[in-house]
Amino acid sequence: NSEVSVFEVNIRFIGGLLAAYYLSGQEVFKIKAVQLAGKLLPAFNTPTGIPWAMVNLKSGVGRNWGWASAGSSILAEFGTLHMEFVHLSYLTGDPVYYNKVMHIRKLLQKMDRPNGLYPNYLNPRTGRWGQHHTSVGGLGDSFYEYLLKAWLMSDKMDTEARKMYDDAIEAIEKHLIRKSNGGLTFIGEWKNGHLERKMGHLTCFAGGMFALGADGSRDDKAGHYLQLGAEIAHTCHESYDRTTLKLGPEAFKFDGGVEAVAVRQNEKYYILRPEVIETYWYMWRFTHDPKYRQWGWEAAQAIDKYCRVSGGFSGVKDVYSSSPTYDDVQQSFFLAETLK
Fold this sequence. Notes:
The chain is an alpha+beta fold. The protein folds into 2 domains: 1-163, Glycosyltransferase; 180-339, Glycosyltransferase. The chain is 47% helix and 12% strand. The strands form 6 sheets. It has a 3-stranded antiparallel sheet. The protein has a 3-stranded antiparallel sheet with strand order 6-9-10, with no helix packed on it. Strand 14 and strand 15 (312-313) form a beta hairpin. Helix 9 (222-241) crosses helix 10 and helix 10 runs antiparallel to helix 11 (290-306). It is globular and about 50 Å long. It is a single-pass type II membrane protein.
């Protein structure tokens, strides 16, 4: 009798169980994935079919986060169900899961998008966008990742997903990607009609995504997107290199004389996040430039030096401090993603 995040349960538990099933062939993992997915289905009982952020596993009652714009659901949450739900239908022969996520996609395709960008907030009652805030980092990130991966996982047959991805990143490049005075390419955030010149650690996954999506891109722009991935990787490496601990902050600015550096105290922490290292990994795989292995090794050494504690690994509160304090948390994504 408790509430869970639909998105988190899907990516961590259902995704984990499906992966375990594919790797082991043991039915128990498939059975548990299906049971759990059944518990999430009531979250889709909204006037639009856009799911609530949270659902009570016992009662099936759903609701949204109190802080989200005007009762909205979040793009990165309802947009990060597709891969697992398609596989649930594939494995069970029951189309209900596939239909739920395809309905979301169809709804998004019909909607007008400001400047071609997807806002992070969508009201599940009215079917209207919330405030016009667009981000490739938190609240938006994995929606774009899943469009590309839906196309890849379909053996490139799902051309609708590829078109949505291509359209989205063209708008992102036009409206969100800029070069700083110091020559660093960064991805800002669109907020209420203007671009905030700030990039989050979470946004750094996009370097790897651009590289992954280069093959099959429109107008034969593969070289362009590989180069863009390399530029994002370089910027994100600078955010690590410009700290005392050689670990990147949660968010960093590109204002005036300050570039790739966190300004506010509440953005100087590092919580064992994988995104920068993930982009190095993709860039290494696609280019085999040895610098990406070197950068990955720098990060591994810094994590070992500054985050290792007797009971595992901890986040640190200030990457610019020579005597950092621990936050006393080992995030689940440290094992699931960063080390992987």
